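HUMAN: I'm a chemist; might I ask for a sequence paired with its structure tokens?

ASSISTANT:
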Amino acid sequence: MLPAPAGGARPGREAPLAGFTVGVTAARRADELSSLLERRGARVLRGPALRIVAVADDARLHAATEQCIADPPSVVVATTGIGFRGWVEAADGWGLGGALLDALGSARLLARGPKARGAVRAAGLADAWSPDSESSGELLEHLLTAPLEGVRVAVQLHGQPLPDFVEALRCAGAEVIEIPVYRWGPPADAGPLAHLVDAVCAHEVDAVTFTSAPAAAGLLGHATERGRRDDLLAALRGPVLSACVGPVTRAPLADLGIPAVLPQRFRLGAMVRALCEALPGRYPALPVAGRTLQLRGHAAAVDGELRPLSPNAKSLLRVLLARPGRVVPRRELADALGCAAGGSARAVDEHAVEQAVARLRSALGAPELVQTVIKRGYRLPLEPMRDAPRCAVPE
């Protein structure tokens, strides 16, 4: 089952995500992201798609640290705040912290983004430059503008190897020292991720957030392992919106033709704001029977008041809203109920449709929103919008 909705939120400026369910694939900073979404009214479903595996005791990191101390690099690239801090902390644990900072103090330090820059400064070091885009690509372009023949460059990795980045530096003549501070691994408990994949495939989630490319790849990989890749792709290319913190994060999705919302600034808060603008706009509010009606994920907003919906009620309302003002035959509504139940549409008879419609009317709190057309079906009595003609002429 999905978690209970955030209580009492009404759609509007303070709760633009009220009524929607948003999936969170992040492992690190998942609490912060979940809190940002919940404060805006969303119901959050967590499914960490990866975990960070520290390698503080790894022989490769220890050897790379000693290499930097013995022959200090001329350039140091800090790609993440957590990674740079982890490197310094690991060196402290080996009794090499002071020697490492002395070695790095003579280098030109480049930080990929503000968090990496903050970690560099917190260590008492001065950073020389950061790209405005916070991308590894711009950082690499900046490095390649200067002669690199024989230059020692230390590159702090961020969860996975950077073969293209490192190879480009080596092709330019640089001697590269790779600093493997941590790496990505599969989640220790795959249960929440499996639940998130199933919820996305069933369209029980309205949007999914991604804060790293490995998280996007991890979600896709897990769905593939469980034989649900096609279902997941269909959902993410259709009714389930993806939100990514930046273009690098989006890359695994873009390769598969999955659209995504991107913020102008690559921050969690900016991504949440972009989602707040994009997600409600996918569900227009319509004038129906003297009221305003909008489907919002697991709820309907009637004159701005959220009304929780069961899966059956949501399925019926979605079909009716697809053709507002027009009559939808009972047989078509029976098909929708059958699909919602995961069974055969033939198993749903017209009496079951009548009961489901009655429950939908009750859930909406306004029976007049769903009109019975005798011997034909049901319709939403759409009203003219100001002076414009009707959006759909009843059959």
